[in-house]
């Protein structure tokens, strides 16, 4: 039989009712549970709580946003906000929906499976600024950052018809001038 937290707390509760010390209770738990036994400090804390009148075996609620805040209405609200304004920031979404930045980011990336499509925005900007030049004749020069060399980025650039100029890893001729 495996001892859960609740089982150990019940054992501590019963032993407290028999007026046993935390040291004796912890020793017995270690004998029975071995390495799985809770620490001496934990036993002391629960003995103190039970002696002060606590009768619940569950943890007290902790501050912070609960995991259950991610539900269908909230995800629908965030999706609606994004559909209305594709340029809205995660910070603005978190402020309007009353959620933390991390929770909104998780909803967008893991639940709604959305990601920014920056390359299509670049293509649109090129077409706006140079309407007579197609993107198939567009050359792009960027450094060798990992995100630029990623397979997904390279495939997206090829799909958009943007040619990438090769950039050497290090070249003193391309280094910025010294001041």
From TrEMBL:
Q: Which GO terms describe its molecular function?
A: nucleic acid binding
In its UniProt entry, the species of origin is given as Elysia marginata
Query: Cross-referenced InterPro entries, in alphabetical order?
Result: RNaseH_sf, Transposase-MT_Hybrid
Signal peptide location? none
What this protein is called in its record is Transposase
């Amino acid at each position: 039989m495996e001892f859960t937290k609740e089982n150990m707390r019940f054992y501590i509760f019963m032993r407290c009712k028999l007026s046993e010390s935390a040291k004796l209770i912890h020793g017995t738990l270690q004998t029975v549970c071995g390495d799985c036994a809770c620490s001496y400090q934990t036993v002391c804390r629960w003995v103190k709580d039970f002696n002060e009148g606590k009768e619940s075996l569950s943890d007290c609620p902790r501050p912070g946003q609960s995991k259950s805040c991610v539900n269908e209405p909230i995800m629908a609200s965030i999706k609606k906000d994004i559909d209305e304004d594709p340029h809205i920031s995660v910070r603005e979404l978190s402020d309007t929906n009353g959620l933390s930045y991390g929770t909104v980011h998780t909803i967008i990336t893991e639940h709604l499976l959305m990601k920014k499509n920056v390359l299509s925005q670049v293509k649109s900007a090129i077409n706006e600024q140079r309407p007579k030049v197609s993107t198939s004749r567009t050359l792009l020069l960027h450094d060798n950052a990992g995100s630029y060399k990623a397979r997904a980025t390279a495939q997206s650039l090829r799909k958009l018809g943007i040619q990438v100029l090769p950039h050497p890893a290090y070249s003193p001729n391309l280094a910025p001038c010294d001041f």
